[in-house]
Specification:
- With 123 residues, this protein is an all-alpha fold.
- It has one domain.
- The longest helix has 24 residues.
Length: 123
């Protein structure tokens, strides 16, 4: 059975971590594809649509493995790679001139560091 070697807190934490990725995946893959592709084109990311959908697949695979408590270490590793890559692509605070937007991107980087920390704890 799933989660049989985990405490209640570990189980809840694992489900919450994966729900973050599953929730953002659902929003981004259904309503924000064009917006993300356009931003990636502006940043000269090669083959932005393909790169974006590969990212979505990695996000789906990693979060599914974690929520199903099946090869959790592999799932967490996939999401670490995804989070680092997405941060580099979408949160380039050093290029943002407007102070409030720059601050938001820096905050996203710090939040993503905390998320990576939680994923490392799963490993």
């Amino acid at each position: 059975m799933f989660y049989e070697d985990k405490t209640v807190l570990e189980t809840v934490g694992q489900i919450l971590i994966s729900s973050l990725f599953l929730g953002t995946l659902t929003i981004n893959a259904t309503t924000k594809v064009k917006q993300h592709v356009d931003r990636m084109k502006e940043m000269a990311i090669p083959f932005p649509s393909i790169v974006l959908w590969i990212g979505f697949l990695i996000q789906a695979a990693g979060s599914s493995l974690i929520v199903l408590d099946f090869y959790t270490k592999i799932g967490a590793s996939l999401l670490i790679v995804f989070t680092i890559t997405a941060s580099i692509i979408f949160h380039r605070f050093w290029n943002v001139k407007e102070p409030l937007r720059r601050h938001l991107h820096v905050s996203f980087i710090f939040s993503n560091c905390a998320i990576i920390g939680a994923l490392l704890l799963l490993i």
